[in-house]
Amino acid sequence: MSTRPDILFPLFQELTALDGVGPKVAANLASIDINRPRDLIFTLPVSGVERHHVASVVEAQLPQTLTLEVQVLEHSPPKVKSRPYRVTVQDEKTTFALVFFHARNEYLSRILPLGERRIVSGKVELFDGVAQMVHPDHILPLGQETQIDAFEPVYPLTAGVTQKTMTRAVRAAVGFAPRLPEWIDPAHKERSAWPDWHTALCQAHDPKSIGDMAPSTKARVRLAYDEFLAHQLTLGLAREKLRRSKGVATIGNGRLRGKVVAQLPYETTKAQARAVKEITADMAQEQRMNRLLQGDVGSGKTLVAFLALLTAVEAGAQGVLMAPTEILARQHLESLRPLAATAGVNIDILTGRDKGVERKAKLTKLLNGEIQILLGTHAVFQKDVAFSDLRLAIVDEQHRFGVRQRLELGQKGQAVDVLVMTATPIPRSLALAQYGDMDVSVLDEKPAGRKPVKTAIVSTDRLEEVVQHLQKAVAEGRQAYWVCPLVEESEVLDYTSAEDRFKALRAALGEGVVDLVHGQMPPADKDAAMARFEAGETKILVATTVIEVGVNVPNASIMVIERAEVFGLAQLHQLRGRVGRGSAESTCLLLYQSPLSETGRRRLSVLRETEDGFLISQTDLEMRGAGDLIGTAQSGLPRFRIADMENMTDLMAQAQSDARTLLAKDPDLTTERGKAARVLLWLMEQEKTIRLISVG
Question: Does domain 453-610 fall into CATH 3.40.50.300?
């Protein structure tokens, strides 16, 4: 099945095939990512309106949405254009007004003829002590009251689309929904008491009360599970495809690793030893490795990565380490060069800055195997970069590197083992979603001797005091980072820019003491500034978040983060991790601008109270919500229409387990249930996954 099943075609038509949806409405719906009937059926109501059927408004506690039978008594057109049109009506016990703004007289006379009885429904409220219904939602002849639901679902809207139009379009789309074969394990479905897919869909769009719209209802949980299952099948198929794809067994003898470990001034942690064991065991298999190395700031991921690269060299092959920025790639070069020298291994770097003769010389050395370990950015995967025998590719700091990109990496035609590293501790739900296709090694210890960083929360009102302390620290030979949220002054935001802070600190501390680095600088200027700071020539480095990852200057023991309340918690944690790497006591100052909101205070307090990145990350998720934390462009994470990663972790874990069980029994999805799962993948627009099966 390499093309969309016929049974799904109605859901993938143009929106204009739906009753009441013209080109204009379709264009408006496209702005909220609704392009097909399929998108509409997965757009569930977000709230609802209860319409109480009463005989008279005097029986209701106003304001309230009511449905009543009334007699039309009087039309009162406005004498002034800006005034409303009023229609006086009578229910069983009293009179009240129907109020219309910008009304057409002839239209109202037609739908509300004098002396006739009508069914009206809408919100009734008191105005100057008199009951009125402004712009009734429904006006119907007697006998048609069944058209008005006692509970009416409310859908998310966009400009140019009314609730009435949206409801009509959704109902038409649900009418196109076919009855699909069951992809859920029958025992699991029975145990959970879930309805079939079609029933769940109809129930979700036809709630009878607010309670029917709770995320915990059987219908909604079932639909959320389907989204999770499709995603986990995608990850599982990617995982199995990689595993089934032939790799090369890379078996090291431990000689080079032993040399390096013996020369270290500290002992490796148990977590590091365990991770190296897991990685080298994977590399020794004839299937390609696909593993995530996850560790908090300062847990020693770089050493583990280097020992893995040495395993490839011990086997007579090559390894590559890719970093997200050139700064980080060069930082790795500086820190790993001494270790490579200890092992007698040739290490080099390749970036976009290498041009002409120099680049050609490096490419030649790479092709003939002289360069055994290569560092660089993703530019190392350009077409003209060829290795003699590449066995291991490590992707560093790539929390933005999603499964789709990993699939593309695997399709480069090189049978390399892949290790992805992240220093962003990820809560279980996000890890399942982002890295469900990978085996995971976790570094949950920090090397001995790494000192805790003292964290303080300070108001910007005490800025002068902070600068004085900095002067004293500089006089003692210490170094400091000062991080700002902006590069240059903004008309929109009132944050102090890095350039302004640099000028102010230079004026206070003198020439040659303070330097500046940010992402908009030419690479050569950026490198020069970093080099001066690393060498201790400058004492204060004013920067943007360009220094968030990988910068390692042991003598830097002070981190000042200006306007800390505007940064994400995970980002603040990363920045704080730049200090505490040397022997000196380290401090992180979180500067905030008063007044600090309750949320801002809580976030900064969490940072002050703990250095546990996993706890910080979980708190960040709880406080900001998954939507704020994980845009698809940022992280490679999926966007679910119904499922909620933040609050449905157990359901996602269940979906992962079920997906893996199904694929273990039916890797090509050819059984009846497997074919149903293929339909699910098409329904959830996982076409790339379907193609994985066909070529796998």
Answer: yes
